[in-house]
Amino acid sequence: MKKLIIIFFFINYIGAYAQKKTNIERFSSKLPIFFITTKNNSPILDDPKINAHLGIIHNDNGEINYSDDPYNEYNGTIGIEIRGNSTANYPKKPYSFETRDDDSEDLNVSLLGLPSESDWILRASYFDHSFARNPLANYMSRQTGYWASKTRHVEVVLNDEYQGIYLF
Fold this sequence. Notes:
disordered N terminus, about 15% helix, alpha+beta, 9 strands, two-stranded antiparallel sheet, 7-stranded mixed beta sheet
């Protein structure tokens, strides 16, 4: 019986270690959580896009997302770069990224219920602490019959460092 308990404990310990995605403490959110990891934790540049891994946790229907949940919305390669001119100099960086296949070719995917596409933006909204101006303006534009991009609020973890809330 002791051997069985020890084996069970060892398997649970190894399983928990293998599930760990980040060095930050476990957290929860009602927002989808984006985990971006660059090779060797390389910094993201303005140009060109660098290869990185993106894992998205999104438990739909109002369920809480936990940082140690498995990636269930996307788990794959992206090319990512800093976006913008003046906003690129702010402490909280905006990013543009494209989803890619194993051959680094564009891969159209639907993320968070948005239409299928390969090019995406993570907008930092550095001066809009409410994160409401752009989504509200886009919503109002769509209500009047004009095209405007759809947005989702997300939390971003980049190379094991929590970056905050972004507009996706």
